[in-house]
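Consider the tokenized backbone below.
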């Protein structure tokens, strides 16, 4: 019996590349005796489909799940998998604007490259972040700048890509003000005033490829970077440090690793989870270590030898 591949795709992600090549993708899987079940991203379709799988036999019937789109599409897919207790290999087809999670695993943007990795049979375990009962795969962001992806015009994102995020982010700088927050971890309590912060599982966010260069996606820890008030004259040089990934040790950054975090503030701050609108504060963070298997070029890609 042919095994099945669940193909969860967002036809609106990126420049439409995936939608235009859908037939070629289906043909590529069929050539490997895999039957494709296409699910167009809409409402709770992926959640309902996974909820209907027989939990005793689904691994005999299905080979893998493919999520094609941006980080928001991938977030929906992973939430559906975790909530329904599904543990199938997950192949990522980066078809969004930033594709931050895919960049961690060096997933290519060519169709042939995506297919090669999806069919390789190699996987790497990846952690899944938890925030207020929902799940994220790459980043939770809080503050006045990090909701940039929500404010950036979709047409602009599709036409000029990552540059659209940068332009929108720079336009927000003059309106910034330091916001008081309290961070409670098992290790200690921090009371800070911040411009914005990110709680990372991966290393990049919004196209900033080195926003958290020390993050390991399978270490069971959250990487927290809180950006303190920065003098206006120092902003250009600090922005360059962010692009280069040399900002973590700056006096304007609080950087810590922790398994759990409670974030509180007297103010209502915008939040963003994997590029989409997030929960309201307070935010309670934790980790599900190694919860998903990601299709990768090599087995256990990026896993340190003493962690295998």
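A designed sequence for it:
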């Amino acid at each position: 019996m042919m095994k099945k591949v669940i193909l969860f795709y967002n036809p609106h992600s990126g420049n439409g590349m995936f939608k235009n090549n859908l037939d070629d993708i289906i043909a590529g899987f069929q050539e490997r005796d895999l039957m494709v079940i296409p699910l167009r991203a809409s409402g709770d379709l992926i959640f309902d489909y996974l909820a209907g799988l027989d939990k005793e036999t689904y691994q005999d019937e299905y080979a893998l799940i493919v999520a094609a789109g941006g980080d928001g599409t991938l977030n929906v897919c992973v939430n559906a998998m975790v909530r329904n207790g599904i543990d199938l290999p997950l192949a990522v087809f980066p078809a969004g604007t930033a594709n931050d999670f895919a960049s961690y695993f060096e997933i290519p943007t060519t169709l042939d490259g995506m297919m090669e990795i999806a069919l390789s049979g190699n996987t790497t375990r990846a952690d899944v972040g938890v925030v207020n009962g929902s799940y994220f795969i790459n980043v939770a962001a809080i503050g006045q700048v990090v909701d940039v992806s929500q404010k950036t015009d979709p047409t602009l994102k599709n036409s000029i890509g990552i540059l659209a995020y940068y332009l929108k982010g720079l336009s927000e700088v003059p309106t910034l003000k330091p916001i008081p927050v309290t961070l409670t971890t098992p290790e200690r309590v921090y009371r800070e005033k911040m411009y914005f912060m990110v709680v990372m599982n991966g290393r990049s966010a919004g196209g900033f490829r080195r926003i958290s260069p020390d993050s390991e996606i399978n270490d069971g820890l959250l990487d927290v970077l809180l950006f303190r008030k920065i003098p206006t004259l120092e902003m250009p040089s600090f922005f360059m440090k962010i692009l280069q990934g040399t900002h973590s040790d700056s006096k304007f950054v609080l950087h810590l690793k922790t398994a759990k975090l409670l974030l509180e503030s007297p103010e209502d701050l915008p939040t963003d989870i994997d590029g989409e609108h997030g929960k309201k504060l307070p935010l309670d963070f934790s980790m599900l270590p190694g919860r998903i298997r990601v299709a990768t070029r090599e087995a256990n890609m990026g896993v340190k030898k003493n962690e295998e």
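The two ends are 33 Å apart (CA to CA).
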